[in-house]
Amino acid sequence: MAESILSLQEAGVYQQDNMILKGVDLEVKKGSFVYLIGKTGSGKSSLMKTLYADLPLKEGEGEIVGFNLKTLKEKDIPYLRRKLGIVFQDFKLLPDRNVNNNLRFVLKATGWKDEAKMDAQIEKVLDKVGMKTKGFKFPHELSGGEQQRIAIARALLNDPELILADEPTGNLDPQTSVEVMKVLQEINQAGRTILMATHDYALILKYPAKTLKCDGAKVFEVVQKAV
């Protein structure tokens, strides 16, 4: 049996004092690909933020990549995030530096010191997302799909145990969405665990996987019908 990399029991997800989700029970096994779906405002992003400790877990139990979300201390949040790869809808690339230096910034911020090792790691992750020749480009010189590939490369820098992708295709056209999805599929097939929030049902039909739905302040598994 694959071991659990993320589990929540009776978890409550809050934005300040507002309860967004209640009684959340979920488990993600190592090496799996899991979708998180639901309408805008249903709590997908709040749940993601709780998982990477942007929002505190106030209620219930939660463990992610070996960290207890309930007892997590402020000083330990950077260590948690080093074991997570986080991909956002809006890329969040730094506009004033090229791709290589965007990635170098993250490595330095997470404690890397050796320039040669940083160069090698940057080349490795860019190669994984098919962007090896684009390191000298600035974000504004890249298409949306290319920027998202760089954002995925950035999420891979510290060899994360779990990738949290929050609407990674939300700003992309259908063809580019499929290309980005193929990259995520390859990363998953290489053994990485991915939890992806999306409202792109076409992708879910094309790449079926375990699907969790946020609805009515609850999270539950959706059984996909055979098409």
Order of helices and strands: EEEHEEHEHHHEHEHEE
**Mean pLDDT level:** 93
What is the rounded distance between the termini? 28 Å
Q: Approximately what portion of the residues adopt beta-strand conformation? A: 25-35%
How many helices in DSSP terms? 7
Q: Compute the number of strand runs.
A: 10
Strand adjacency order, main sheet: 6-7-8-3-9-10
Binned, the helix content reads 25-40%
Structural class designation: alpha/beta
The Rg value, from CA coordinates, equals: 17 Å
- Give the uncertain stretches in residue-range form: none
Shape: globular
Main sheet overview = 6 strands, mixed
Q: What do these coordinates show?
A:
It comes from Lentiprolixibacter aurantiacus. It holds the Pfam family ABC_tran. It is a single chain. This protein is of the alpha/beta class and 227 residues long. The protein has helices at residues 44-51, 77-82, 99-109, 115-128, 144-156, 174-189, 201-206, and strands spanning 4-15, 18-29, 33-37, 59-64, 67-68, 84-87, 162-166, 193-197, 210-215, 218-222. A six-stranded mixed sheet has the order 6-7-8-3-9-10, with helices on both faces. A four-stranded antiparallel sheet has the order 2-1-4-5, with helices on one face. Strand 4 and strand 5 form a beta hairpin. Helix 4 (115-128) crosses helix 5 and helix 5 (144-156) runs parallel beside helix 6 (174-189). The longest helix has 16 residues, at 174-189. It is globular, with a radius of gyration of 17 Å. The mean pLDDT is 93.
